[in-house]
Amino acid sequence: MKNDTDPPGKRDRLKQAGTLNSTPENIRDPRFTRGGDFFDARDLLQVRYEMVRLVRFEQVTLAEAARRFGVSRPTCFRLSRAFGRGGLEALIPAPRGPRGPHKITADILDFVADYRRRHGYRSARRLVPLIEKKFGVKLHPRGLEKALVRGRQKKTPGAGT
Asked: What share of the chain is helix, strand, coil (3-state, %, to 5)?
């Protein structure tokens, strides 16, 4: 997996890019297990591309490719199909988890702004029960505080300049 000519910081760069393979030890394809300077089982994008290339261009079965690359057949099929539709970019793993505060909507932020305008500043801890009563949404005060800060940052582009 790691060789003597491993570029400094490569693991960190892969992790930051979201392409660090968390299970490089599952790769059994000879190009990755022999070592060498090019094939790196930690590089998930490279691993996925090689797996798809075997299936699409070297006529290796999905089952064999899945075995060699330590994934399930459905995963191998899904990646092969994704590559066919979207090319190399489709093999880049999508970020996991929610894409932002999904409970705290624009309506809730407007409510908080309006409430504070009419009643003066109220802490997030005091606003959370009001939001739950009005919108039926349970929030954590810290989550609301963060959303309010993000909202202020978006409304004041170039602040501090």
From this structure: 60, 0, 40
Q: Contact, 128 vs 142, CB < 8 A?
A: no
Which tokens go with 75? 């995963």
pLDDT at 6: 67
* Closest by Cα among 56, 51, 52 to 41: 51
CA atoms within 13 A on the CB side of 52: 23
Rounded Cα gap, residues 156 and 161, in angstroms? 11
- 41 contacts: CB under 8 Å, gap ≥ 6: 1, 21, 24, 25, 27, 32, 33, 47
CB 114 within 8 A of CB 102: no
Instruction: Provide the pLDDT for residue 100.
Output: 67
Chunk the chain into consecutive blocks of 10 residues (it has 161) and report each block's average pLDDT, rounded to whole numbers. 65 91 94 86 95 93 96 96 94 80 88 95 95 94 91 59 41
Nearest to 34 by CA among 70, 3, 68: 3
Nearby residues of 96 by Cβ (< 8 Å), 6 or more positions away = none
